[in-house]
Amino acid sequence: MSFKAIITNNQNLLSPPIENILRKKDIQILTAKDYLSAASGVGVIITDENYQQNLEEFLELGLPTAVIAGNIKYRDKDLALEMGYPAGAIIVRDNEGRITNIEGKIFKEQDKGIEIKTLLEICQYVYTNNLCPFIYVWQEGEDKQETVKVREDKETETVETSPVVNFEKTEIKESQFKIRAANFELPSEAEKHKSPDFRDLSKSSSLREEIKQEPPMQEIKIKKIKFEDFISKFNGKAALVIKADETIESGMPASILSKYLKMHHIELNQKPSAYTLYGKSMEEAIKTQQYSFGDLNNRYITFADELPYDNVLFNLAHLDITEETFLNLLLEKAQEKYIVLSSNYDVCMGIIDTLIDIMPDKQSLKLITVQEKDTEVYARKYKDMVKFIGNYQHPTT
Question: In principle, which of 147, 217, 249, 292 could form an S-S bond with 303, CB 3.0–4.6 Å?
């Protein structure tokens, strides 16, 4: 899968000529403030006067991020590494004039700088390998080499491990940040001491649920159901998310809305895409029981254990290929409809007006902008129907 957007605060990259080049390649370029619109985005930090500030800001975003750290002899690369950026994502010009990461992978032989083509290759590498910045909340010291026994709560058997900690990087996904935490248990001889509760790292309920991970993911069974069978059984509350511009992603806004509305996210697409917001693979995402995939080609839904029939959010990723009868059925079932908008105003307004004409209940329609600057433009015509996706960051109570 290829990335769909570059997220950066660098003014050179945000210039109109570069934006035009990237648009022709179907790649958006956004500032960090607007990154929520990029479900498949790559961060790019370029050494400049705001370098350290950008390193700190992108660390919280948790996106796969390329750091262009300049010449290898400068300390910029070390600062990025110290702050938690993977070595494979830190790009330098080495002593032989090559563009490489600090692990030695060569992206371009003998070049005085980085051109757009090379930057895109770097971004694809960082995205494919999921090279996200991370923060250790605990790290094993070099002087601890002893082997101890760790007792598992759910099993009577003991397992040997060395060193004392079973260090596992666990991605914790939030709408605005991602960190990687250490999961560990104390050795049996120290059980009289209270184990630190890493769930206190955040007050977020979703963070607590992801660390707890019950029931065990390996016990969750994945099933399939035909669209028609699901619709026939469905008699509850539903929401529908449609994108007005086929060139943008709607997965991230749909995920934010599903959490805000406390609904189950069902992606209706030709190929799964939004699963990356829930797990490293579609199977892992489905086993969270927060996400299911509806295949528009074969007309079935893949889900985990029991699919909810009373509280779902349909994320229709392709309006242009959807059969009219199926679209009308979704519009009829959904009590709330959301249209995700882009900066392509003429195209989006055309879709909005068409849907308004065919919708039986126009009061249920809401227009969602993913870039805050677009909100005012659409509000001139559609007034209170328009809201910025950032207004939906906190779930309803």
Answer: 292
Cβ contacts of residue 66 below 8 Å, gap of 6+? 42, 43, 44, 45, 89, 91, 119, 122, 123, 126, 131
Within 10 angstroms of residue 271's Cβ, the number of other Cβ atoms is: 12
Q: Which domains does the chain have, with CATH numbers?
A: 5-128 (3.40.50), 141-189 (no CATH), 221-392 (3.40.50)
Render 228-256 in DSSP notation, one character per residue.
HHHHHH--SEEEEEEES-TTS--HHHHHH
Block means of pLDDT (10 residues each) for the chain, 397 residues, are: 84 86 87 67 89 87 89 89 90 91 88 88 90 72 44 40 38 36 39 38 39 50 86 85 85 90 92 86 88 89 80 85 75 89 90 82 85 90 90 64
- Whether the CA torsion 113, 115, 121, 122 is positive or negative: it is positive
For residue 215, say if its preceding peptide bond is cis, omega within 30 degrees of 0: yes
CA angle 39, 45, 51 (to 5 degrees): 140
Beta strand 90-93 with 99-101 is: antiparallel
The one-character DSSP state at 118 is H
What 3-state DSSP class applies to 358? helix
CA distance 127 to 129: 5
| CB count in 10 Å sphere of residue 199 | 16
List, for residues 331-376, the tens digit of each pLDDT value.
888 889 999 998 889 999 998 998 888 776 777 899 999 888 889 9
Closest among 252, 298, 294 to 274, alpha carbons compared? 252
Tokens 């648009």, residue located = 23
Q: Would you call 200 exposed, middle or buried from its count of C-beta atoms within 10 A (0-12, 13-18, 19+)?
A: exposed
Decide: residue 238, CB within 10 A, 0-12 exposed, 13-18 middle, 19+ buried.
buried
Distance, in Å, from the CA atom of 10 to the CA atom of 51, rounded to the nearest integer, reads 9
For residue 198, give Cα distances in angstroms to 151, 154, 167, 290. 19, 19, 14, 22
Residue 30: closest CA among 370, 388, 390:
370
Q: What is the 3-state secondary structure (H, E, C) of 310-324?
A: CEEEEEECCCCCCCH
